[in-house]
Amino acid sequence: MNSRRVLPPYRVKVVEPIPFLTADERRAALADAGYNPFNLRADQITIDLLSDSGTGATSTLQESAAALGDESYAGARSWFRFRDEIQALTGYPYVLPVHQGRAGERILFASMLKPGQLSVSNTHFDTTYANVVLAGAEAVNLPCPAATDLDSAEPFKGDIDLAALEQLLAGPDGSRVGVVLMTITNNGLGAQPVSMANLTAVRALCTRFGVPFFLDAARFAENAWLVAQREPAYHGQTPREIARAAFDLADGCLISLKKDGLTAIGGVVGLRDEARYAACEANLIATEGFSTYGGLAGHDLERLAQGVREVLEPTYLHSRADSTARLARLINDAGVATVAPAGIHALYLNAGRLLPHLAPHEFPGHALGCQLFLDGGIRCAELGSLYLGGMDEAHRLVTPAPFELVRLAIPRRVYTDTHLEYVADVLADIAKDPERVNGYRIVAAPPLLRHFKVRLAPLSG
Ligand code: F0G
Prior knowledge:
CATH topology of the largest domain: Aspartate Aminotransferase, domain 2
Distance between the termini: 50 Å
Helix content: 40-55%
Largest sheet: 7 strands, mixed
Bound molecules: ligand F0G
Strand order of the largest sheet: 2-8-7-6-5-3-4
Structural class: alpha/beta
């Protein structure tokens, strides 16, 4: 075994300063933000792990391509470059550019889902879920049973439960299923990958029952990398070959290109079916932009065309996966459990286990997230009872979430291993004396999308 460190295939050329506040300044900032890190200003944050979406660094080749961006209203050169790259990546003949993933969701579901129909998924991302509901349909999640064991080393906990899917399709509600949508990697469930075996079986079921099969492929390259590592039949294949094999299985895709597109903005809908394309195109032109730009500038299309190439480079994916796995080891060695095995775009801390003195209604995940900011200026997102729990009208927790997690999302090509070691150090200090972490209560919450605008107060201290 070669024990040398895995190097990122790039060096840094342009840097951006990061803020360092004092502990007192952070305490005041968090109080002003109603103890909700979403309300913090980015210039109050030292390490921002809130999202891996639109937060990556671009390359010299992306920026030089952007300078050549063709901003013509229709038929721009940049559109053709983008379209050709997406067709080469996915094999889908019809390509609709959109400004980000959720715009693609809205446009696709408007043509695909009728009121009363079902969208079935391994796990819908939250905006995907919302867009299914806005189309008048119902979203059904069927994660595989292995996903409920956060500690097991099962390689593909992002899979869908095939037995449950078959039962649904063959049962009385089978005729209501309008789409099966597989999210790769499974962002809602610990960044776990989906195996090609699972996607192949979903294809077979969808063919048998005559249901369209789509991919939500925001992290298509990262899923391909994990397949190459963990699924023996795919050892030795390139990420591009594996990504293509996944797209080949499906009838179309939604991709938020803010992740594996390595850009700040962008998305795409890929389709095989001409009639569906025509329906989506009319909607795109009415609500996003003409079909050769879809809400994006020519320079965005150029960065994207280059980004979807760079993201599939094995040296890049290897170093990114290695960096996340290394952070997981440092965090685990410090006594904090993460959802296992480590994925690539994020680590999910098991706050419920670290902070057993806090009950779900005291929001242990949120408390850990706030402590990471107070102690180290780190911002991250709770995925526990504050976000997913059921509340009554007085904002009291009625149904806790199954797990109290905190997501550390890792922007692409942005932080060095030293920044990530710092994150592990801050966590290690919390793990030495977890009882000092206070719980929180809700002071005010909006009726919809609670986690973005909720205001809280610490319970004591
Ligand atoms: N699908 C998945 C799997 C996602 O993770 C996201 C966004 C979307 C769709 C929506 O895409 O943001 O471009 O409209 N995820 C971000 C995150 C926001 O932080 O995980 P979008």
